[in-house]
Amino acid sequence: MKRRSRLGTVLLAALAGVAGLAVPAAASSGALTVTTLDRTGHAVPTDVSVVNLRTNANYTLHSGRRRALPPGWYGVVAVIAPTGTSWGSTETLGAQTVSIGSHPVSMRFDARRGRHFSVTPSISGAAYFTSEPNICINGMYVGGLPGFGGVTNDVIPSSNRFLRFSYTAFWAQSASGPFYTVAGKTVTGIPSHPVYSYAGVPLARIVIKILKGKAKHAATTLMTYPSGSPNSCNPFTYGFGSISAPRTVTQYVSTGDWMPQISYNGGFSNAPMAHYIAGRTYHLTLNRS
């Protein structure tokens, strides 16, 4: 199974509107200082991602250091590891929005406020499992945080009306399937109890017949993409498995819009994005042309 780069999943933003988090300081120019506290309450070094929500300009800040910023409305995201920049077993995701004017502003992310995020798969003893909380702000997807290899995720709750939260998860019974991919309902803010279970929950069943086609090598990768609309908060996240063609595989998905796709040496083939309903069975044929 392919593991995605952490750097590609930490570009996030959103949260705030929480009283006391953004405190103007006495000075004459606009700047931002971010403090990050670990789960013991100690300040730790963390790289913080900042994006101007109107111009899309991106900045990287180091916690504890003041960074001058042009006036504007910003999304700020921090991922706090157990000992700051040393990644470990539990990572805490915090996101806020803040307005920068002519005076410096300070904000703080406290991992002690984090709430455990988890998704329980529908099968026991899954050969592979990963889950990811996803955030978008002001209608724009800004990233997520993957959980795999013993890493678990906490998220800091928020009632910020500009923030949207959802999640995706993928698990497989074996390297050749069946495969399961789910996407949660998008909600406003970050919930205080982000715990979800698919035990006993019906899913849509997609039976996919993969033809050998003209490709010389049998190795084939199945990917199943959810709808990529900004409001879904679930774009570009997928589960996949490597199989040999020809073969018929089974992919289960939660109710929603999905696009199964196969890739192989020399090309790819996909079904149209379509709406699938839990409890129903669908049949597709993908040819390695």
Radius of gyration: 21 Å
Low-confidence stretches: 1-28
Structural class: mainly beta
Give the number of domains. 2
By CATH's scheme, which homologous superfamily of the largest domain applies? Carboxypeptidase-like, regulatory domain
Shape: elongated
What is the CATH architecture assignment of the largest domain? Sandwich
Based on DSSP secondary structure assignment, what is the total number of beta strands? 24
**Helical region count?**
0
| Amino- and carboxy-terminal Cα gap | 24 Å
Q: Do you know the CATH topology of the largest domain?
A: Immunoglobulin-like
Helix-strand string: EEEEEEEEEEEEEEEEEEEEEEEE
Q: What is the makeup of the main sheet? A: 8 strands, mixed
Q: Classify the helix fraction into a percent range.
A: under 10%
Q: Give the amount of beta strand, in percent.
A: over 45%
Overall average pLDDT: 83
Description:
With 289 residues, this protein is mainly β. The chain has two domains: 6-113, Immunoglobulin-like; 115-287, Carboxypeptidase-like, regulatory domain (Immunoglobulin-like, Sandwich). The chain has no helices and 24 strands. The strands form four sheets. Strands 10, 11, 13, 14, 15, 17, 20 and 24 form an eight-stranded mixed sheet that branches. Strand 21 (256-264) and strand 22 (267-270) form a beta hairpin. The two termini are 24 Å apart. Residues 1-28 have low confidence and may be disordered.
